Amino acid sequence: MSHIIALFLQFIPEETALAFLATVFLKVEIDKKTVLVIGLISGVAVYLFRMLPVTFGFHTIFLILLDTVLLNYFYQRRVLDCFSSILKPFILLFFCEIITANILHYISDKSIEELIRNPLIKTIVVLPQVILLFLVGIVILWMRDKKEQRYDL
Question: How far apart are CA 48 and CA 38, in angstroms?
């Protein structure tokens, strides 16, 4: 049961946020339905991939490649542009995970390994990261809009 909760509260929201931010970096018009479809496909894929007996970290490589293919398919942009636009959110997510894990470690006085083993805590920790990814995308769009308005004068 905790796996299903993780799918809907961790994997799909996180992948949707990554897809949104990648779309922002790709500089294409944001289509909410497409972002949700990419997030859903990627979320289910990472959920299934993590059930396989593979070394930790391969799921990230798999997701970067899958998201590159999905961005290319839905937005018809060059593969290199799609790869670059998805790599940036993953790097941001990596730093967010390090910061969040260290803060939680400091607050709870438990090791990071102990925290990761608890599915509920792991799922709750993801939510601020998801919010941050969406906020970064919204701020970038806002700044881009302000810049365009300045040049329209």
Answer: 15
What residue segments make up the domains of the chain, in order of their start?
Answer: 2-152
Per-residue buried b or exposed e for 92-131, using 16+ beta carbons within 10 Å of the residue's own CB: bbeebeeebeeebeeeeeeeeeebeeeeeebbebbeebbe
The whole-number mean pLDDT for each consecutive block of 10 residues of the chain, a chain of 153 residues, reads 77 95 96 97 92 86 96 97 97 89 82 77 82 95 86 60
Sequence-separated (6 or more) residues with CB below 8 Å from residue 66: 41, 42, 45
Is residue 43 within 8 Å of residue 7, measured between CB atoms?
yes
Looking up tokens 């496909």 gives 41
